[in-house]
Amino acid sequence: MSWLFALYPWIKALHIAAVVFWMAGMLYLPRLFIYHLETEPGAADSERFKRMERRLLRVIVNPAMVAAFLFGGLLLWVSPNMDWSSGWLWTKLAAIAALSWLHHLFARWRRHLDGDGRTISARRCRLANEAPALLTLAIVILVVVKPF
Helix 87-114 vs helix 62-78: angle between axes, to the nearest 10 degrees? Predict the structure, then answer.
């Protein structure tokens, strides 16, 4: 078990990298949805956006989320100073749950657009595009400042 404690800096670095990749994809995916919604169903551009959305989600966003959870869970387990009674930690976990729900919502929207559904508005995608950034900002503040 001590070998895992010795790897703490590596686990932390990999967790941060995974979160960066996850958030990059979560910020770009709704932007692709907006561009996609501006095309005609069945058009070449629409098909191109379907491929881009599918690849982004499957190749970057999904694996990055899994890695963020894996390395984040390891950090919680091996952290020498983890205080499970601190409010910032539970608030951070709630924000992560919200990000996970948003990830699931984006995956549903992608499947909907893949079937040429157009019930999602570009305005809704623009608003959804802000949520990952705001949640990430909140999480970073909670982790660094630990306000409560």
Answer: 170
Burial of 88 (0-12, 13-18, 19+ CB in 10 A): middle
| Residue keyed to tokens 């630990």 | 146
Q: How far does CA 96 lie from the centroid of its chain?
A: 9
Write down how long the chain is. Answer: 148
132 touches 23 (CB < 8 A): yes
pTM over 0.90: yes
Distance from C-alpha of 85 to C-alpha of 71, rounded to nearest angstrom: 21
Q: Any alpha helices (H) in 40-86, and if so which ranges?
A: 44-55, 62-78
CA distances, 31 to each of 122, 123, 125 (Å): 9, 11, 7
Domain ranges within the chain, ordered by starting residue: 2-145
pLDDT of 105: 98
Q: Profile the chain (148 residues) by mean pLDDT over runs of 10 residues.
A: 87 98 98 97 97 98 98 92 92 98 98 95 96 97 96
Closest CA to 135 of 84, 104, 97, 88: 97
